[in-house]
Design brief:
Chain lengths: ~400, ~300
Amino acid sequence: MKKFWRVAWHEYSRHVFRKRFLFALLSVPLMIVLMVVLVVVIILMETSSKPVGYIDYSGLLSEPVAQPSVKWPERFVPMVAYSDENSANNDLQAKKIQAYYIIAADYLQSGQVKVIYGDKLKPSDEEQFASFMKANLLANQPPEVANRILSGNEVIIRSTDNSREASNERFVNIILPFLAGILFIVAISTTSGYLMQAVVEEKENRTMEIMVTSVSPNQLMSGKVIADIAIGVTQLVVWALFIVLALVIGKNYVSWLSGLSFSGEMTGVILAVMIPAFIMISGLMAAVGATVTEASEGQQIMGLFTIPIWLPYLLTGVFIQNPNSPLAIAMSLFPLTAPMTITIRLSFTTVPTWQIIASVIILIFSAIGAVWLAGRAFRLGMLRYGQRLQWKEVFSHQKV
Amino acid sequence: MPTVEISHISKSFGALKAVDDVSFNVEKGEIFGLLGPNGAGKTTAIRVLLDIFKPDAGNVSILGGAMTEAKKDQIGYMPEERGMYQDIQLENCLVYLGSLKGVASDEVHRRINYYLDRFDLASSRRKKVKELSKGMQQKAQLITTLIHEPELLIIDEPFSGLDPVNTQMVKELLREQRDRGVTILMSTHQMHQVEELCDRIVLIDHGRTVLYGPLDEIRGQFAGHAVIVRTPDELAGLPGVEHIEQQNSSAYRLNLAPATNTQDVLRSLVESGIRIDQYEIAAPTLDEIFIRVVQPGDQEQGEST
């Protein structure tokens, strides 16, 4: 058992503590940080803290209330009252204010205001003035009425079985399974790539005989598999932590993230599909590694598996238009396309339970088959230095 | 009890019978030579012995029974296909391979320091294995074979890639291991090394045992009824000698009549006043025996099976 852990630690540490891996690991958090910085910079560029003036002929703002505060990085724009247009215009020329509004005496009838500016107001500053007007128009209303009017309409579309709902504010929940699917597949691809490399490595550097006379082939393989799964999990956990952190922080500042919520049921379905898919793809990659003589040769064959795995992503548009088409159902049941197809469909429809169960069962059997295939290919091919193992040999009755 | 007992093992790959009814024992504390031309089945026999391949027939007993995981820690194996993890530092590679042989962490470091010094590799400990020369990698591989102080050493072509100085060092090391009681099974093509080191040999050809036994006995079997005499004098007309071959200006091969005793020939040489610089029974070298018993065409097969 000790040897199993030694193999696993050796495999894990020599990948995880490499610059290449650390760079890949930190690429997603760095990308998120970069995106956040970009968003903040754009918001800062789109807003100004310079006051906006107004001349109120309607009398509605005789005792003005300030507009609601804004969330950082948006900046609060102070509203300055002027008694006449001349003084407002002087301050505009002196660039003390960025613009001034003239609220007509018949504002309540016409709903019209006039704005005088040097440079066009930024949309968010216009919104702050609108918000200032709304706050003052609703100043005499009970708070619950005022809040209801201010929050506007929110149309919620709910599935007939109440399992799913979508709305403007909760739009992000729609794409969550889709994002989770992509994240999983990237992690699976990376991990299984490492596994393929790990299996071929002892053949490539001619250490297989030394290894199998030190540890059993089972300990060697299982140590490597556990290590490579741990590498994938490390990557997934770090990425997921940063993404969740970004979403949780982001929902306080970005309106379209505010409806974000994680559904336990959805998470369960994604895990039920992804875990056997993970084992199946790892098994297939390990089997490829066992048949080839060099890692580079294996990477070419890996492409044959990678194409169907990513194919559903290319067909996202087709699935959005008709998420329950025969093509979508077929691809949900075919093991290599199932993980991505199911997660995409979960985003845009209620996938019938029978299809999820059937897909998971097919994936579990495929995973068992792939692991068996990998084990057999490994034992048959482990001492084939510089000579490829033919697939017909793997499926032959040859004793191993 | 022999350290290794191979009893009638056979192993085929498809139509090719790589090992065919081979049997031999390796006794404790001896250096045993496993010889044969390329493709004779030596490597397959070793792999069967190490339980890498299951034999189609026959039995293998190693260190007193069937191979187990625990026994792997008592065996040091240096395969013909040399290999080390190329992309890691030499010291890390040795620590990893040593720890897989069950050596405790402190001890593995202590032994690595000892062997790196002894093999003149101490200054290369932080280098990646791929940066080492072929000879240095060969020595590093020998360290991985010895680091766990095995009871049984199985080494395939231990001298390939080594210069004369390192060859001498490895020979001393093998003798030292034998003196410690370690059993050594050595497979090599270098017959003079076998003659120098091995007590007993088995020679296999086309997967079958051709010769097996103590080296002296085998050489005796192939010795003709002849003696070699080195003398500055002319040799002619000696009693009991059928034919005299002059090998060079001072060496003669005397082919004796079947009834003649080698002691009688020596006596008659002395009595005739012949000055004798050297007198020995004409035994063939292992090289000559090898060439004589190995069927023509074997050397072209090339592939190790």
